[in-house]
Specification:
Layout lengths: L1 E2 L10 H11 L11 H20 L7 E4 L2 H15 L6 E5 L4 H12 L4 E4 L9 H7 L4 E5 L13 H10 L3 E5 L11 H4 L3 E5 L10 E5 L25 H39 L3 E4 L8 E6 L4 H11 L1 E2 L15 H5 L4 H5 L1 E5 L6 H25 L1
Parallel strand pairs: 1-11, 3-4, 3-5, 5-6, 6-7
Antiparallel strand pairs: 2-8, 7-8, 9-10, 10-12
Bound molecules: pyridoxal-5'-phosphate (PLP).
Pyridoxal-5'-phosphate binds next to α3.
């Protein structure tokens, strides 16, 4: 099988697996225990915290470990809004956010609080003029992702942060897809909160982190203990945290080389597809993640293409794995102004470290075959 769904998840790096071995075996203690077994586990968590912090240019005490990107997004959005003073309970987010942010915003709105979603242009970039108008004095938090999971579009976060700062609001950015693909520097971005996830950067599933800039007020969503400075109580998932730390260290070292190589593969793939298949168009603009290629195949159903490709040995997707069970087209493509039919015709290919040149050539060939077959079927049926 050729795997071209790295935005859904990534394979575990062998070095990450090796690092996790210790925490899965000999160092099994509870990091909150005072005895030596506990303190050995504590040291592993502390090391991982430093690795994770270094990766995004943060301080170790600005990292809160969570169970993944979804929890980090929920903690950021609901935690910041809950901690905000009375009269400043509003949230502004982009309409192209991941469901982890959008559904957290919906939950906040259902409690009677103001939430505004701001649209995006044809490339999926947030409308900063509309955002500026939406960030009024009653807004506590602005949440705009660093890179979009469906189309890879990079959002102008530094600009968003400047707008929010002028109104006294904090900014959260969902960097789950950006991590490991573009450099992340929380200071340069000017954000108060940033979430990312282990399994998107060749770490284990079930670990993630929220960067909480020193001094930013946040209310916990879970109650029960003093772990993670009470912001995320519960005994730490030490093996997953250790793996996440190692994955961050490796991603930091490999970022430039990985991004360059994967961009070459992606560009080669797109060139082949656009040249060999009629009625194709790339979704998202030039400012994109290096690994993501979201392609519209005019007149076809993206889901049918994905199913056929799977049978042919190529794993791709129609968009976010967590939304692919429902039949509605990508909310991201709809927010970019596409019609439901247009949005439904798209397939997301996302490449990664393990893909080879041969795989890319073969993937392009398989896509051409699948599309030809489906177009023939459509002709026979019409
Ligand atoms: N945010 C974005 C942009 C994502 O792409 C994803 C996962 O696809 C998430 C959040 C959720 O992360 P996790 O799978 O770690 O819960």
């Amino acid at each position: 099988m050729i795997y071209a769904d790295y935005n859904a998840t990534t394979p575990l790096d062998p070095e990450v697996r090796a690092a996790m071995d210790e925490a899965l075996g000999a160092t099994f203690g509870n990091p909150s225990s005072m005895h030596q077994a506990g303190q050995a586990a504590r040291r592993l968590v502390d090391r991982a915290r430093s690795q994770v912090a270094t990766f995004i240019h943060a301080a170790a005490d600005e990292i809160v470990f969570t169970s993944g990107g979804t929890e980090a997004d929920n903690l950021a959005v609901l935690g910041a809004a809950a901690a905000a003073p009375t009269g400043r309970k509003g949230i502004v987010a982009s309409a192209v956010e991941h469901k982890a942010v959008l559904d957290a915003c919906a939950a906040w709105q259902a409690q009677g609080n103001p939430v505004t979603l701001v649209g995006a242009d044809r490339d999926g970039r947030v409308d900063t003029a509309a955002l500026e108008a939406a960030v009024t004095e009653d807004v506590a938090l602005v949440s705009v992702m660093l890179a979009n999971n469906d189309i890879g579009t990079l959002e102008p976060i530094a600009e968003v942060a400047a707008i929010a700062k002028a109104r006294g609001a904090d900014v959260h950015t969902d960097a789950v897809q950006a991590a490991g693909k573009v450099p992340i520097d929380v200071k340069a971005l000017g954000v108060a909160l940033l979430s990312f996830s282990s399994h998107k950067i060749h770490g284990p599933k079930g670990a993630g982190a929220l960067f909480v800039r020193n001094g930013v007020r946040l209310a916990p969503l879970v109650h029960g203990g003093r772990q993670e400075r009470t912001l995320r109580p519960g005994t730490e998932n030490v093996p997953a945290i250790v793996g996440f730390g190692k994955a961050c260290e490796l991603a930091g070292k490999r970022l430039d080389a990985d991004a360059r190589r994967v961009a070459e593969l992606r560009d080669h793939f797109e060139k082949k597809i656009l040249a060999s298949i009629s009625g194709t168009r790339v979704n998202g603009g030039a400012q994109r993640l290096p690994n993501t290629s979201n392609i519209a195949f005019a007149g076809l159903d993206g889901e049918a293409i994905v199913i056929n490709l799977d049978m042919m040995g190529l794993a791709a997707s129609t968009g976010a794995a967590c939304s692919s069970a429902d039949k509605t087209p990508s909310h991201v493509l709809l927010a970019m102004g596409q019609s439901p039919a247009e949005a439904r015709s798209s397939v997301r290919f996302s490449f990664g470290r393990e893909n080879t040149d041969e795989e890319i050539d073969r993937a392009a060939l398989l896509v051409a075959q699948a599309v030809t077959l489906l177009r023939q079927v459509r002709e026979v049926q019409s």
